[in-house]
């Protein structure tokens, strides 16, 4: 489908929901991203309606900390959303390349994303899929929230959707999502910025659900002044968390000033920009024909032709493309699409063998530090805490939160091997005595 008023240049990316095209608005040369719904999903009337609702929801949100929807078009053979093209990289890519951001930079990331969420919450919209892939970091050290593909009205009952690693306890319980649901996910992302890994890891959906529902997050790696902020945001009950992103933002400002002084934000933005610039520099930027900015988003170094088209070099990968095609819906896949190992509602889970535990990887100072990738229902990571058998993946029985932290491996001071723990722990796997020359190995990822 040709979108009137826009000239498409090339594909930026594609995913389960469709493809994203780089395009130029004919009237002023503005560079945009056009999201086309896939042919398979166009055959699903309910999904098309949800796609249309996504566009309507985002158009109501007017914030410099969200990617704007500029237009929506629907025809017999296509449905498209025209979106602002954001100059930046995904937070996921930043974490993969740079590891933990440092406390002040992490606070800046969280503040920008919370500002975008706050505007959505004021409009009665809940994001429901806050994760590093949906946060874009700009070269000036700012952050924007994108991809409202599974957003809903606050309090609306909807199928279980989201990314498992970032789903709040109430989402696992099939309870209505509210602003506090987004606060929980935002705090998980903040934790990942601070430590380089997520607080909860599991080898299957049921185990991950149990951890989010019952296990207290390990806070030992968090700077002590920030622990109350993280603990409040990760409370198991929505009523025990900040009631909205705006309320959480006020707590963030107070905690940041108390811990790092009045100048925490300029320092954090500078640090975040330093981390982002090497990655953003890999993207070429457009310059409009005839000079000046021409209203064109500064994203590529190449030139617009007089006809308003963009000459683009090969190998272009854009954060916006990744973000607007990344929404993950579990247990509500359209016909013909596999949901992997996701468990449908009500599926019984047989008692599992004792789970082994492993500490999250400790980031090293090397530039190649890579935090754990985003989990999917089929991810085979080892759980970070003991996960007893769960008989219902949809609704593990609630129990008082236990203050259980996952074991953490620490670097050894020399070649001497550590003796295995003598205290019997039936559900943990002991490391055997090393035979031969001792060596230091990284914990399993």
Question: What does this entry look like structurally?
Answer:
By secondary structure, this protein is of the alpha+beta class. 28% of the residues lie in helices and 11% in strands. A hairpin with a 4-residue loop joins β4 and β5 (79-84). α4 (103-122) packs antiparallel against α6 (179-195), α4 (103-122) runs antiparallel to α9 (245-260) and α4 (103-122) crosses α10. The longest helix is centred in the N-terminal third of the chain and has 20 residues, at 103-122. It is globular, with a radius of gyration of 23 Å.
Keyphrases for this structure?
alpha+beta; Transferase(Phosphotransferase), domain 1; single chain; EC 2.7.11.1; Phosphorylase Kinase, domain 1; disordered C terminus; 5-stranded antiparallel sheet; 445 residues; 10 strands
Short description:
With 445 residues, the chain is of the alpha+beta class. The chain has helices spanning 39-42, 45-59, 91-98, 103-122, 169-172, 179-195, 205-214, 227-233, 245-260, 264-280, 319-324; strands spanning 6-15, 18-25, 31-37, 69-74, 79-84, 89-90, 125-126, 135-137, 143-145, 152-153.
Counting H and I runs of at least 4 residues, what is the number of helices? 11
**What is the element string, with H for helices and E for strands?**
EEEHHEEEHHEEEEHHHHHHH
Report the structural category. Answer: alpha+beta
Strand segment tally:
10
CATH topology of the domain at 98-274: Transferase(Phosphotransferase), domain 1
Contiguous uncertain segments of 5+ residues: 284-445
According to CATH, the homologous superfamily of the domain at 98-274 is Transferase(Phosphotransferase) domain 1
Q: How far is the N terminus from the C terminus?
A: 44 Å
The percentage of residues in β strands lies in 5-15%
CATH hierarchy, class of the domain at 98-274: Mainly Alpha
What spatial order of strands do you see in the largest sheet? Answer: 1-2-3-5-4
Rounded average pLDDT:
71
